[in-house]
Amino acid sequence: MSDFMQPQSVKMTCYHVETSHGTEIIPADLVGSSPDLLAFADYCEGEPEEFTRESGWYARLSAPGYMDCTSWTGPHSSEREALGDLADTFDLELDLSGLTS
Asked: CB count, 10 Å around CB of 57?
């Protein structure tokens, strides 16, 4: 894996927003605890149509010091599962030995 994009995993609550271009995962801290569809417009590529709120482990690749990052994946039941899915998705070799399942 390049040193530019680093794996990131966080236990958090997100909104899974169905849009005209697919599903977007938006962290809840960006839109608050009681958003309406308009709250997601600035964070979605397509037109927001409906959403659900989910909690768990999410993962993505991020470039520290830059705004470059992939979309979040999740939710997962553990950090190991979240990073394992990230490794599978982007064909990465990550050392998950220090994480509990």
From this structure: 20
